[in-house]
Structure formats: structure tokens, C-alpha cells
């Protein structure tokens, strides 16, 4: 069996690069810098094992991206971890109603993110 696939959607190139570099030894990492790019990629039929999704994205925000990816039948059960800025804490309530798997507040410590990913992929 191959490596599990983690799809990271974030417009912050610094974090995107850091997360990719840290995860690539253990997981296959796919990245997108916008919600639109993410949806284009997901419509090609790739089914990741986990999606890390920033809610503050250009062109198609994380909330809309989440709604759209859940309409793709093969992605219905894929765990989604939302990356939510501390300034948007109130949005966590909205996220709970939408059926996300987990969230992590940004800026985050990379060690915390890795532990969260490993926990979810073990379940």
C-alpha cells in the first residue's frame, strides 16, 4: 500500500512550503493555493486521505470550497481539517454545523499540526 495522501489548500506560500516539506517523507502531499485550484484538482478524481483547508483563500474561500467538495460523492467521507485564524474564532461554530472533522487555529505550531494529522489518519 502506498503513502496516504494529504491535500493542503492554503494561499500562504510560507506555510504551504513548510507543511509540504515536513509531511513529504511520510505522506504524499498535494498542494493548492486557492479554492478554485483545489476544486479543479479534486474534480480530476483524486481522493486524498485528508484535506487541510484554510478558510481564508482568494477567489473561492474555504467555506465555499468545503461546501463544493462535499458535493463530490467520492469525497463525502474524507476528513477535512479547517485552518482557522484566531481572529475568526466565532467561525468555529459555523464549521461544526458543516461537518468538518477538526480544526486548528492559525498561526499553528507545525508539531501540533503533524500530531493532529497523524491522529486523524490512524482513526
CATH architecture: 3-Layer(aba) Sandwich
Q: What is the top-level CATH class?
A: Alpha Beta
- Overall, the morphology is globular
Residues in helix, %: 25-40%
Number of DSSP E strands: 5
Radius of gyration: 13 Å
In whole angstroms, the N-to-C terminal distance is 17 Å
Strand order of the largest sheet: 2-1-3-4-5
Arithmetic mean pLDDT: 89
CATH superfamily: Response regulator
Could you spell the SSE succession in H and E letters? EHEHEHEHEH
> Could you give a short account of the major beta sheet?
5 strands, parallel
Residues in β-strands, percent: 15-25%
Give unreliable regions as ranges. Answer: none
**By helix and strand content, what is the structural category?**
alpha/beta
CATH topology: Rossmann fold
Number of helices: 5
Count of structural domains: 1
Give the topology:
Layout: E1 5-9, H1 13-23, E2 28-32, H2 35-42, E3 50-54, H3 62-69, E4 80-85, H4 91-98, E5 102-106, H5 110-122
Parallel strand pairs: 1-2, 1-3, 3-4, 4-5
Helix pairs in contact: 2-3
Architecture overview:
- With 123 residues, this protein is an alpha/beta fold.
- The protein has one domain (5-117): Rossmann fold, CATH 3.40.50.2300.
- 39% of the residues lie in helices and 21% in strands.
- It is globular, with a radius of gyration of 13 Å.
